[in-house]
């Protein structure tokens, strides 16, 4: 809804008069209202229009201004304070243009202090307050104006504008109806009422308002065309094809009586065709552009629109078949449907649907590559219009599926390749899986733990073979594989213990669950000694291997208990240090650093 600015009557007519109206009628400023008419009759007898046309005009103007109480008050005010009011008025309008509404409010208020009866200035004040967000104050100003001039359609419209912004929809409707009753020739009033109903999805009320406006017009010209096209817009909102049919029949009937409006009707048909196309009513969209071309064949824009709507007809035909074609995977059919019908969704719903569609397309490309490739080839051959419309997407999915197909083919060969270590095979299988993140991380830790037990040269050899013979599998995570190889190349063993410590850096804390929980870090020196004992001695015997396997099963649970209890942490540390002392004595394992750390900790505790 748009607000309205009424004419500033006194600035246009009164302030520019060179003659004093009281002097023209032979009166003083203190004269009574009944004296004005007597003076007017006397003057026009002295100066009849036939002999003195210019003098008669001045007399008539003076009488019109002074006989109306409001305009007389404005005239008197401008006679005394004209320069000051004009200055404030100019400042106010300039501030409105610059959207400095606070400054405009101040200027208009100053004028009303001088003369509260200046209705046009009060109207401007109400608008400035409304634009500044002071809606209650704006409504108060407009209501005061309507009390003083209830038959003014502009003030009724502006009050409706403020009421709608405040959420008073019913009151806004009432005042717009009043405004239209007062000025039925103002098409903007009906447009505001129509838009208000549409914004609030009050389609039946909008229809009634337009129908009443049509009935109120005796002439059958531009106004009726305008209102009939508004009815079509309501039909589109309601997606009522039968009502659209009836509304267009009324337009065509009216056009027979007003052929001079052909160009206008053609343009309106084209606008509606575009809107119908946006809401996927393609059959009507095409019909309207065809009719618009008949009415105005020279309009190139209408011709282009017709070509556009005709192109969509082929998309619709193909999509009707595609929606039933079970040989094309669902995510690809979903992509086609979104392209054609997506504009009917609101923005949030559309964005969510696109995200789901893209996720599903990635999924089928990765896990069903052959079916995906077959589906896209079918789209290319059987549904060319749809394929061309979404060619970028379908090409990307095809590329992903081709890569996935090669990955699966290479994996089938690689899993039987004896030169690839088991940890690398498991790692590649993990990359190709669709596990959830937490499950993926758990398997990843276990795979790295297994890799730390394998011979470094065989792991490096396996990585090189992956890169050369199974390049698509290597490209699943080339940076990580390259980093593993680099660490293995950089490792330089100087003793049994140091050799293990270097390779174990890539081992996860899961290998020593309880000790990690007790010492707070997998990098603690005590854990290095325990790992060395496990790999060099325990795993060499059957009993040791059984113990390690049992420990891996119960270790995570026990670690959870230790992590939650400070007392358990202290007890486990003491047990570990006791074990390290025994290991040093029995196996000559170098645990000096760890035991020295024990002594440092104990001394710190005793301070």
UniProtKB/TrEMBL annotation:
<dbReference type="InterPro" id="IPR011990">
    <property type="entry name" value="TPR-like_helical_dom_sf"/>
</dbReference>
<dbReference type="Pfam" id="PF00226">
    <property type="entry name" value="DnaJ"/>
</dbReference>
<dbReference type="GO" id="GO:0005737">
    <property type="term" value="C:cytoplasm"/>
</dbReference>
<dbReference type="Pfam" id="PF13181">
    <property type="entry name" value="TPR_8"/>
</dbReference>
<dbReference type="InterPro" id="IPR049886">
    <property type="entry name" value="CFI_box_CTERM_dom"/>
</dbReference>
<dbReference type="GO" id="GO:0006260">
    <property type="term" value="P:DNA replication"/>
</dbReference>
<dbReference type="InterPro" id="IPR001623">
    <property type="entry name" value="DnaJ_domain"/>
</dbReference>
<feature type="domain" description="J">
    <location>
        <begin position="20"/>
        <end position="79"/>
    </location>
</feature>
<dbReference type="GO" id="GO:0051082">
    <property type="term" value="F:unfolded protein binding"/>
</dbReference>
<dbReference type="InterPro" id="IPR019734">
    <property type="entry name" value="TPR_rpt"/>
</dbReference>
<feature type="repeat" description="TPR">
    <location>
        <begin position="119"/>
        <end position="152"/>
    </location>
</feature>
<keyword id="KW-0802">TPR repeat</keyword>
<dbReference type="GO" id="GO:0042026">
    <property type="term" value="P:protein refolding"/>
</dbReference>
<dbReference type="InterPro" id="IPR036869">
    <property type="entry name" value="J_dom_sf"/>
</dbReference>
<keyword id="KW-0235">DNA replication</keyword>
<keyword id="KW-0346">Stress response</keyword>
<protein>
    <recommendedName>
        <fullName>J domain-containing protein</fullName>
    </recommendedName>
</protein>
<dbReference type="InterPro" id="IPR018253">
    <property type="entry name" value="DnaJ_domain_CS"/>
</dbReference>
